[in-house]
Amino acid sequence: MPSLLTRIRSGRLIGLRGLYANMRCNNEVCNESDAEREIINIKKNYVYDKIDPELNLVFYDNSLMPKIKLEQMIVKWEGFIEIDKEDSYVFYLIADDGARLYIDKKMIVDAWTGKTLEKTYSDKIFLRKGVYSIEIEYYNIGAFGKIELGWRRGKSIEEVIPSRNLFSFAGGSVIITNLPKGYKVRLIYNGLVREAIIKSGIALIPIIDIIKPFSEGQLIILNNDDEIIYRSPPIDDMSPGDVYVYQEIS
Fold first, then answer.
1. pLDDT on residue 26
2. What are the chain's domains?
3. If you compute the radius of gyration of the chain from its CA atoms, what whole number of angstroms results?
4. Do residues 242 and 175 touch, judged by C-beta distance below 8 A?
C-alpha cells in the first residue's frame, strides 16, 4: 500500500532558548556570587522557558513574566549561531548587571562583574562558515536590567547579532504520529541507526545527543512483519523537535 510521511512542524526555531529564574540570595541584596552559584542549577529551577529572537533586551517591568523578580533575575540562553561568511569576528556584551558569552563551550566574553552598561569585547576570532553552539549567562540585581549581544564582522560596523543568525530547537526528539499498531520506525542519522520508542501510535526518537545542525537523516517505517514499507528520501535539514505524520494511501 502506498504511504506518505509529511513534516508538519520544523524543530528549528529562530532565536535562542532562554531559561529565566529567580536567584536565592544569601543576603537581603543579591550579588554576583549568588548569581554564580544559582546559574549552575538553572535547568532545575527555571520559572520561564521562552525563545528570544535577538538579545537586545531591556528589563524594567515584569508584567510579561510576573513570577520573575527583576532584582533577583538570572537567565541562561542556549542555541546555535550560524556563521554565513568566513571572516574575523569580534563579539561584545552590554550587561546590567553581568553576563558571559560562550562559543562552542569556550568563554570568549567575561562581563560578569564591574561592567555595568559598558561594552565588553572578545578577542578577534577567525570563524569558518558553519554552525557553532552559543551560550549566554546573565544576571540582574536591580530594578532595571539590560542585555545586548553583538558582533563586528571583518571591517563592517558593530551590530546586534540578527535573529537570522541565531536558532535553537523545539525539543530533543524526532516525532512520527499516526502509526498503525505494531509498526516500527528506524532513523539513520549522522551514520548512526536508532530505533524509535513507540506508544499509542506515536514514535519518539531522541537525537539531541548526536545533533549536528543541518545534518542528513532518513526515516524507515516497518510493518508488523518487519518489512520495510516506507523509506524517506534523505532529509537534509532534520532537527530535534521535527514532527511528522504518517499516512497510508488507499
1. 82
2. 12-169 (3.90.182.10), 171-248 (2.60.40)
3. 22
4. yes
